[in-house]
Design a protein that fits this description.
Layout: E1 4-7, E2 10-13, E3 35-40, E4 43-51, E5 56-60, H1 72-81, E6 86-91, E7 105-107, E8 110-113, E9 130-134, E10 139-143, H2 144-149, E11 156-160, E12 163-166, E13 169-170, E14 185-189, E15 195-201, H3 207-218, E16 222-227, E17 233-235, E18 240-241, E19 250-254
Antiparallel strand pairs: 1-2, 3-4, 4-15, 5-19, 6-17, 6-19, 7-8, 7-11, 9-10, 9-11, 12-13, 12-16, 14-15, 14-16, 17-18
Length: 255
């Protein structure tokens, strides 16, 4: 089955949703939620969907003085002082020990690094890796070299790796018999660039299992892994505000 998420009181269906699928049961007095719990291959996941046209999705790393936010609470407090409300957040990409992004990152303060296409160890360099990007009118997940070749110039961007789903197919390097189990989070974007889906596993899962969530349940053509070490979520609508080590990049939704 493919995931159905209630957005702003209207049911938006993930790309390629099977015809005739039933929308979730909701009473008339129940407020629509952007986040849902999804069961997939015996594990539970939380998937939060946001429409680009209706939501202010941003990337964050540091305040105007260059001090990293580190925690959701710090970002929440600064936005509150500016008269804005953080309604969702998730760790938004890999980072060095000093919390600088490993790959390309662009937020309201500009670029912190260029697109990294170097070879190297670790998940980030399990090519192809990719870039999650946002403009004022659309979003995308694009392979890193394709991002450069297309000359994309978004408002916000974060590079991570590996890609999980590429043009509807799983990353060829993901092993269906993999034995590494971790809590993981990632992002996928609908084919028309109008819906962004953030997912996090609620228990330890393999790379392959996590990738199939985006392919088989969310139904997006492209999805990107964000992390498997510090994965956590801030989502007040479902009473989630997870604590942990200091973060580098953060992706958030603001009202």
């Amino acid at each position: 089955m493919r995931i159905l998420l209630s957005i702003l009181g209207v049911f938006f269906v993930a790309s390629a949703c099977s015809p005739g699928a039933d929308a979730p049961n909701m009473s008339n007095d129940e407020a629509p939620r952007n986040c849902q719990s999804i069961a997939h291959l015996g594990d539970d996941y939380t998937v939060c969907a946001y429409a680009v046209a209706e939501h202010d999705i941003r990337l964050f790393h540091s305040d105007a003085g260059g001090a990293p936010y580190f925690q959701f609470s710090t970002l929440e407090r600064e936005l509150d002082e500016q008269g804005e409300v953080l309604i969702f957040a998730m760790n938004g990409g890999m980072y060095h020990d000093d919390r600088r992004p490993v790959g390309f990152f662009r937020d309201q303060n500009g670029d912190q690094a260029s697109v990294n296409t170097n070879d190297g160890p670790g998940n980030f360099h399990l090519k192809p890796n990719g870039v999650f990007w946002l403009t004022g009118s659309e979003a995308g997940v694009t392979e890193s070299q394709a991002f450069l070749d297309q000359g994309l110039d978004p408002v916000y961007a974060t590079q991570s790796g590996p890609m999980l789903v590429i043009a509807g197919a799983l990353h060829p390097g993901l092993n269906p018999d993999g034995t590494s189990h971790r809590r993981r989070n990632g992002v996928g974007v609908s084919a028309d660039g109008q819906m962004v889906y953030f997912a996090i596993s609620d228990s330890a899962v393999t790379f392959y299992e996590f990738a199939t969530l985006f392919r088989d349940e969310v139904g997006v053509p492209n999805a990107l892994f964000l992390d498997g070490q510090v994965s956590r979520i801030y989502a007040p609508e479902i009473d989630r505000n997870e604590l942990g080590p200091d973060l580098g990049p953060i992706v958030g939704v603001v009202e």
